[in-house]
Amino acid sequence: MGSVFFILVALALFLRGDLRLGAARRRGRSAVMAEVSYGQRVLARQLFFLARILGGLRTDFHRVHGKLPRAFMVVSNHQSLADIPAIAQALPHHGVRYVAKRELGRGIPYISRCLRFGESALVSRTRDFSEGQQALRRFSDLSDEGICPVVFPEGTRSRSGRVQDFYNGAVRVVLERHPMPVLSVAVDGGHDIATITRLLLHLRGTTYRVKPLTLYPAPHGKREIIELLGRLRAEISAQVEEWHRGARR
């Protein structure tokens, strides 16, 4: 029952967020960009608080130790839509935007508008590759405004929780246009609540974790980017496996 109540309250928050985004957009680009950055952090705190209180979700959120630069790329594994607000909550002093599949730009209250109005990169898996590259280049330019691009290089959500292969396409396009430091982030638990059915059945008792790991200096050129992605996958995978081993004990 608590999971059902959580879903209803979350939907109300999403609809309220939609109204706020619509009002901000009428005031111009700077207003809507500020609303996206601020609103997604506030909504993230509210969602995870309600998931704990109403649904019985356990959370383990770590913050970054030390000072972060104004703009940097976030590279994370991906298990569910919960990863989007989770990363926003883990970086409360930075505006973040995402590389996401085009289908997420429509049909999901608040999240779809947040992705579109916030100028996240919505990339199609079936359309012209050059169109996706242009979207990623525009997306990378947001770093000049202090916006941090977030990339899930697995390309799709992991159903098992294991970290899948990393693809370098989106990371390369962004970093080759705008070299910047890269922060690795590990998430876990989202695969247990990745669908409405799983949310209803498993929200209570699931532990959702987020942990920023290492801030790497900006890579330069294709070779450095690919080598860094290999290190990032190994590091994130090791953290997720450590969590899984602890859960099996």
Please provide a written account of the structure:
With 249 residues, the chain is α/β, with parallel strands linked by helices. It contains eight helices and seven strands. It has a seven-stranded mixed sheet with strand order 1-7-6-2-5-3-4, sandwiched between helices. Helix 4 links the parallel strand 3 and strand 4. The longest helix is centred in the C-terminal third of the chain and has 28 residues, at 221-248. The two termini are 29 Å apart. The model has no long low-confidence stretch (mean pLDDT 93).
Quick summary:
With 249 residues, this protein is an alpha/beta fold. The chain has 8 helices and 7 strands, in the order H-H-E-E-H-E-H-E-H-E-H-E-H-E-H. It is globular and about 50 Å long.
Helices and strands, with pairings:
Elements: H1 2-26, H2 29-55, E1 58-61, E2 73-76, H3 83-90, E3 95-101, H4 111-117, E4 121-123, H5 129-140, E5 147-151, H6 169-177, E6 182-188, H7 196-202, E7 207-216, H8 221-248
Parallel strand pairs: 1-7, 2-5, 2-6, 3-4, 3-5
Antiparallel strand pairs: 6-7
Helix pairs in contact: 1-2, 1-4, 2-3, 5-6, 6-8
